[in-house]
Amino acid sequence: MTLKEGKEKFIQSWGALGSSWGINRTMAQIHALLLISPEALSAEEIMEELQISRGNANMNIRALIDWGLVYKELKPGERKEFFVAEKDMWEVVKNIIIQRKKRELEPMLRVLDEISSVDPDSEEAEEFIEIIREIKLFSNKADSTLDTLVKSDSNWFVGTFMKMIK
Amino acid sequence: MTLKEGKEKFIQSWGALGSSWGINRTMAQIHALLLISPEALSAEEIMEELQISRGNANMNIRALIDWGLVYKELKPGERKEFFVAEKDMWEVVKNIIIQRKKRELEPMLRVLDEISSVDPDSEEAEEFIEIIREIKLFSNKADSTLDTLVKSDSNWFVGTFMKMIK
DNA sequence: TTGTTGGTTCAGTACTTTTTGAAACTTCCT
DNA sequence: AGGAAGTTTCAAAAAGTACTGAACCAACAA
Q1: Which residue is closest, via its CA, to the C1' of C28?
Q2: Cβ(A20)–Cβ(B99) under 8 Å?
Q3: Which terminus of chain B, N or C, has fewer Cβ atoms within 10 Å?
Q4: Segment B41-89, tens digit of pLDDT
Q5: Among B157, B34, B105, which Cα is nearest to A165's?
Q6: Is A17's CB within 8 Å of B131's CB?
């Protein structure tokens, strides 16, 4: 396989993977492109490489920065902005966990709390409250487990955890 | 909050959560409805409750069974099929991990392997191979960690792991 | 065999999300 | 102030995804 083919295949696959993770195709492709790029790239270069419009590039780069997966890099002398990807996979995953926890798990916990206030004025209501209570319990565990996971470092993940768990 | 409001809110929120997890809104809503239903429900009842068409109900129920989140229940005497949700949250999460691992992580591992065969015939190619190697290493770790996680049981998750990690 | 109940399929439609491209804005230089 | 280089925004269009409803299939009962 040639380098060009390999790069294309990687960008394409990373894009597909992203789609099923709430990260849109283009966003994931930009991330992939930056991941395998030894140099920081400008918006122009990204547009060119992925054949996308300026607006699209701009919005998705912004979103990537927002997720903490890409950094802006200002080269001295250049007025243009350049972008680099976070290349430590553990950092990437950690940032995704942080964002999704904030965007999805936390709102759900709030909803579960609200819902718990249903009047237990019937057999059915009691059963409902009990099921919600169990879901809440589980979600809270997941929440604090993720917190701990995010605080731990890469070495812990690749080393200790694997041994501990085996 | 009344029981009716609570149920609606839960179904609605679970649906929204699903959307960001590659599980479509209706599928997640059916799952929510079954989760909070003490009785198994028929397709008719689900259609009625969520105001969806027969085709939609059928396809999504089947997908849920496919994901291992819902079971078919045949009541003796009744020709109709009834459905119940898996109510153990740990089982639910485990099944989702299993499915997504199979659908997303494993194909990505295969692609990474293919890509590794790029000719290291330039500085750039060597850097590319190295980055891919790191991603592969990380993905393999994630893969086996998830395997172990899935094999472990609920008690381990809610008990030991939490203490261990603190 | 015919009618009834329930399940499945899928082409067309409706809805949602993403992308484009052009205009507006910002910064800096002369 | 005017202009060049770059970035941001957003309405409209395109692409992608989900849903409907009607036709079809299967099992059973009369």
Answers
A1: A79
A2: no
A3: C
A4: 999 999 999 999 999 999 999 999 999 999 999 999 899 999 999 999 9
A5: B157
A6: no
